[in-house]
Amino acid sequence: MAKQYMSMRNLRFLLNEVFKVEELTKQPIYQDHSKETFDMMLDTAKQISDTLLHPIYEEMDKNKPELGDNIIHVHPQVRAIMKEFGDGGWIAAPEDYEHGGQKMPAVIYNSCNFIFHSANTAAASYPGLTTGAADLILTYGSDELKDAYLSKMYAGEWQGTMALTEPHAGSSLGDITTSAEPQEDGTYLIKGQKIFISAGDHDGVENVIHLMLAKIPGGPPGTKGISLFVVPKKRIENGELVPNDLQTAGFEAKMGMKGCPIAHLIMGDKGDCKGWLVGEPHNGIRYMFQMMNGARLSVGMMSTGLASAAYYASLEYAHERPQGRKVNVRDMTTSPSLIIEYADVKRMLLFQKSIVEGCLSFVTQCAYYADMIKASEGEEREKYQLLLDLLTPIAKSYPAEMSVQSTSAGVQVLGGAGYCADFPLQQFFRDTRINPIYEGTTGIQAMDLLGRKVPAKMGKSLMLYAAEINETIGQAKANDAIKPYAEKLEAVLQKFSETTMKLMGLAQSQDPEVFLADASLYLETAGIMSIAWQWLKQAVVVQEKLADTPQGEELNFYQGKMAALKYFYNYELPKTRGLIERLNSDDRLTLELDKAYLV
Amino acid sequence: MAKQYMSMRNLRFLLNEVFKVEELTKQPIYQDHSKETFDMMLDTAKQISDTLLHPIYEEMDKNKPELGDNIIHVHPQVRAIMKEFGDGGWIAAPEDYEHGGQKMPAVIYNSCNFIFHSANTAAASYPGLTTGAADLILTYGSDELKDAYLSKMYAGEWQGTMALTEPHAGSSLGDITTSAEPQEDGTYLIKGQKIFISAGDHDGVENVIHLMLAKIPGGPPGTKGISLFVVPKKRIENGELVPNDLQTAGFEAKMGMKGCPIAHLIMGDKGDCKGWLVGEPHNGIRYMFQMMNGARLSVGMMSTGLASAAYYASLEYAHERPQGRKVNVRDMTTSPSLIIEYADVKRMLLFQKSIVEGCLSFVTQCAYYADMIKASEGEEREKYQLLLDLLTPIAKSYPAEMSVQSTSAGVQVLGGAGYCADFPLQQFFRDTRINPIYEGTTGIQAMDLLGRKVPAKMGKSLMLYAAEINETIGQAKANDAIKPYAEKLEAVLQKFSETTMKLMGLAQSQDPEVFLADASLYLETAGIMSIAWQWLKQAVVVQEKLADTPQGEELNFYQGKMAALKYFYNYELPKTRGLIERLNSDDRLTLELDKAYLV
Fold first, then answer.
1. Has this prediction a pTM greater than 0.95?
2. CATH code, residues B8-153
3. How many CB pairs under 8 A join A and B?
């Protein structure tokens, strides 16, 4: 097991030096916080991760869950983890005080979760999912629902889930068939099946509360006819928990994230599965998508966490592993070099570092916007909302896709050892492969970005985003050491804007399939540009710090930042050239392709 | 289990229409063959794959090998597979008649192995490794060694292995410490350890014959002091097999290729492990590398096989899976579309198809050069040898790296189902991740290409290669339908040549580390260009065929070829732009990076 899985120094750099989160405490809603309370939260998260989560990361993969009598038996420590997260107030942390929360700003909550997920992403999923589910009840549920469920969920005694997917309906929620028949007592009889429900059943808690999408018969077709329900595994009757006719048919064996099972649930087999409506009928998708937006940012953060753990594991190996000699060494009797001395190994390590620290910065940026939405009003609030809406599909997908490549580079640094179970690299690689699928595939996110977010409000979001990037470019141009990078980013932003204009022109003149055909490439381009922006933003701060002539480890830290910036601008940013070339092509290959040709 | 794992139609297209392998039978050494014998070999390979290999591909992954009493118990069918491959003459197939071989040309042998590996790469590894090991004995061994080992190995009764890697020496063979002490009887006492030995021990055979690298004490340091030995698990004494003090300490658990264990061997623990020298002392690396070159081409072929199986599995799913509706469909009461109707899914399928058929064509090209080396003399022979030497690191690495991405695209087509064990996609993805590591990592191949193959003989190899590409470009320019692609490739070849000149200039004026720093990017660029060449070469033939107005499935086949060509030129070839930009940069980031900055 690698010793390090994330860098607290880097996290503090982002929070304190780049995003200056202390400023948030000047906002009325965060006024009870201070740098000290933030630090305490981060330190506690690290300590929990070190003692409770990280030691069993590999064990949870090797000792897979097992299905018992209508219950999934998971790692025995899951119970202790849920209790610790409940007792420590982590599950309710983002909520208001009156619900047992700490009003923790999203930047801090996200940072703590980054620590948890880099330590053990499967374990951290249990409380994380519970927060998301409870938040839906808190935001849209009746007082009765809040009273019945929230305290148990926040205490970590009951698990929360998101129950969306059905065997025939994954990406297409409009086609779900789980039905909710209204009863005279105001409840609904639920009937149907759900699959791929993360933490959908396990023996680490007393009960599982599903936030479930279902259709009330007679409603409109598609997503407009979907309602949201609380469907518990055990319902409360006369103060007792009794079975709610919700069977666990099993769970899917998968290649990674084995420590957190995805359950197959059967509701209402005996006609006795009760659900409670959350909010208004037929508004389920709207409610769920509010949470999904948060979940999408979480996927970006989780992906970055796995990339972080892989980076430090491969870095540690590269620092310790002697192998071969540099090309300019002819004397074979000399001692072998450490592999970290080789240019190609440094390249793979810099690649990982630039992805980890670039993506973490970007996800933190999005969390910061989420905080500013809560803290502001009117036009300012709209600005932050538009920015967050625009960047959410990017913050979900780019870290997810790059985490696969980044952990793969970690495997490659180790060579054959990276492929073997003695080292965790192969597990990071397997675990993170779900991230481009979770919460909407990359293709779905791409359609959301280019088809919905960019054209909305006449392109206002993208104009706001360009202004944000240009502000950083302006700051960076004032410093000769980083001016060339500012100019590179400016050129890419210019090309990206021109490409967007061309695509928006197509959107107006042709069938919507045309401008969306290469949406995935547009998303990838936006991702590279966004991370380049975050690196420039970090570099502006780094230059200020370097002017103070730091020494020793502090100097190394800031010089490492400059190296990662240079890596990203020299090796990753040029990838936009080929992407933009394609995005501007008038070839309609994939649209015109007869599927019979795919043989 | 997906029904199709490779396309016989495509294989025949490459062999008969593009490479016109029947022409080979005009060469004296292949004169006993005919199109009919080739077809029979291919059909037999397909039939064995359908009945013996493919049905247990997933089973061999799920029922992992187990270590018994100094022997690894593998899937019970491995014995039947070794017997079938022995009885059918597959293990000896490429060898001369007098050794029980069939003088099978490399293009055919490689094609048959492509069928085997796309059906079940773990299973196909057992006989394949035996061929490689036996070939070393045949080529360099004494008559006594040939008599003692070959017939049993060719019969599939004894397994052959390549035993190179040691715990402290993977990529750096010069540092191995396994020793071979000469004895009075002409044998050597072997002492040491080997790890990662594929099929290094198992109960599907009576004996395991290791072609092992070791050092005779007193020899020169580094690779020049390495000799090659036959070290059997059981040695022959008085016509009996007796233990040779070669213990199986265990095997590594790994994330894929689980059906073929990699053994950890301990030789000479009791001072009684005998080895027999192959060829001359201190020539082991030269001998081994001749076989390694063949093995590197095999990795390219195996990678392509896994990409093929993933392509057809995801294609089958895309043809059958209804999900969602196209963006221009507003009526949610209509039936869902098959996912193959979506542009983004078609893009992912075309990506896979272009990789599978492009890489198979390139590996076949290399095998064709190998055949022409055997069939020609003098300058012509030198030409083919230089071409094969130059292209071998590319043919190993590009398919290996792209197979990871291509199988990942296959996973993505299925979404959550792709991540689950009910479908084989996750297994293809796990299995193929070893290929960029096998037989020298991508970084090692890159150093071989740019540091050795390109500068050799004053760049003659690359000039010959450019002539080959230009010949295809010339043919393609004669046809208006594909002329634009010829021009695109010509432009990339021009840029690639200029970049090479610049790097060779650096090689002469600066420390060798400088021009080699981004060798991996050079290799990637060469890979993209090489596959683009093969697509253009195929397209020249496709255009001839389309002129004959084929109908039905034949028309679909050729139109599919054109679509994949267009995909590769529109989406993959533009990636060379960013790569070439970086390769021409004077920034020395990775060379100048202080490792202390990597924090």
1. yes
2. 1.10.540.10
3. 290
